[in-house]
Amino acid sequence: MLDLLEGKRNRRTTNPMVASKPIPFPPEPATWPAVQATRFALDRADHREGRRGAFLKTLDAVGLGFDS
């Protein structure tokens, strides 16, 4: 890594896998709806004085709960 940062050329830094930039990947499409649903549910619970809806209760039941 330091050789790459300093621009040193050697066998490792000229390896095509190391020298080429990776293909940019978008955020995983399957996670985006879940993140948005969680954000919405937390915001809704905040507006309902902490009362959680079914979605947040389900997350709590499986150990993925969030404190709003």
Automatic annotation (TrEMBL):
It comes from Amnibacterium soli. Residues 1-30 are annotated as: Disordered. This is Uncharacterized protein.
